[in-house]
Design brief:
The protein has a single domain, classed as Peptide deformylase (Peptide Deformylase, Alpha-Beta Complex). It contains three helices and seven strands; from the N terminus they run αβββββββαα. Bound molecules: nickel (II) ion.
């Protein structure tokens, strides 16, 4: 089932999400709905707070063609299909950082460059509660950081340059008004 999205201005996007402690069929059903919603919205990641669930869970899926180096080799060969990430921790963030344009399903029509570490280790639990760890590169690493930020009430627009933040101020204010009216 596709779930309705929560948009910029909703206070739920600014909350600290709570850890997941129960790994049951309800969590499995939620993760499936989140994947379906991510696909329907053509996103590469979706976090709990974006569908009004204040829990530490996100889903991500990087299309293979967006996960290649210059030679066409996969950057993250372990990533196949949608990944369900519960209670994530980001470790060993690389010193090497890169700036790249981001967007967010909860902040339509706004994009901007965010500087982030190029690789990270993502430690998390899968939907059955098993501990897992993955080293991620490039877009996958960026996506994992963007989604983990959502669980801490942080949005990519918070991380833009001062100049860019001033430039989108009006658009954000409009979006917030729309959200609060609906
Ligand atoms: Ni987002």
């Amino acid at each position: 089932m596709k779930l309705p999205l929560v948009f910029y201005g909703d206070p739920g996007l600014r909350q600290q999400a709570e850890p997941v402690t129960v790994f049951d069929d309800k969590l499995l059903a939620l993760s499936r709905d989140m994947v379906e919603t991510m696909h329907a919205e053509a996103g590469i990641g979706l976090a709990g707070p974006q569908i009004g669930v204040p829990r530490r869970i996100f889903v991500m899926e990087i299309p293979p063609e967006m996960d290649e180096d210059e030679t066409g080799a996969r950057l993250n060969p372990d990533l196949n299909g949608p990944l369900v990430v519960v209670n994530p921790e980001l470790l060993e963030l690389s010193k090497n950082k890169e700036e790249m344009e981001e967007g967010c399903l909860s902040i339509p029509d706004i994009r901007g460059k965010v500087r982030r570490p190029v690789s990270v280790t993502l430690r998390f639990q899968d939907v059955e509660g098993r501990q897992r760890e993955m080293r991620l590169q490039d877009l996958a690493a960026r996506c994992a950081q963007h989604e983990t930020d959502h669980l801490d009430g942080i949005l990519f627009v918070d991380l833009l340059s001062q100049v860019k933040r001033v430039a989108i101020k009006g658009k954000l204010r409009k979006l917030k008004e729309q959200t609060l009216q609906s």
